NAD(P)H-dependent FMN reductase
Amino acid sequence: MKILTFGASNRKTSINKALARFTATLVPKAEMEVLDLGDYDLPIFSEDLEKEIGHPPAAKAFFEKIGAADALIVSFAEHNGSYSAAYKNLFDWASRIDEKVFQNKPTVFLATSPGPGGAGSVLASAKSSARFFGADLKAAVSVANFYDVFDTETGRIAEASALADLIEAATALALQEVA
Ligand SMILES: Cc1cc2nc3c(=O)[nH]c(=O)nc-3n(C[C@H](O)[C@H](O)[C@H](O)COP(=O)(O)O)c2cc1C
């Protein structure tokens, strides 16, 4: 199973990218590819610009990466209760290729932040709109207090309850394969 993972953030040291990557390691027999949204350089979406330039190559490349995967693990950064501007912009461009950006792929949504809210607001938004955008959502997990539960030396979530939630989510993706 080829799992595409990314943090929905363009921060180089994104904690969401780290969480998505770690969760992919919990899926048995999976191959993972980690995207860095910083590699998808795009102007701010506008319908006027779209009329001029059509679908930019970076949006097509992102859409095609999703299309080539068997499953997705996306972890959402929360900025002021919502998506990071970098992710929202990329998503808006990709949605003009096809509104079903997630292309019916089995998907796990995650979210984390340094605080006790665990980016729960953005995760709730992502969950509520998942089906409109073609995500076959298998599980959604928020991880609170990231720096308290993540071991930066091993790159693993060390806290038992968060780890159990992530194992359950990874198992839901793995079961997809044998179903
Ligand atoms: C503009 C801005 C707004 C933020 N708003 C929130 C917020 O609403 N809720 C939250 O839990 N963290 C918020 N944070 C802190 C982020 O959770 C933190 O920067 C986190 O590292 C972002 O994830 P990333 O490392 O994957 O980019 C905000 C950070 C920035 C820069």
Q: What stands out?
A: Residues 2-178 form a domain with the Rossmann fold fold (CATH 3.40.50.360). The helical segments are 15-25, 47-53, 57-68, 85-95, 120-129, 146-149, 160-178. The first strand starts at residue 2 and ends at 8. Strands lie at 2-8, 31-35, 71-76, 105-112, 135-143, 150-151, 156-157.
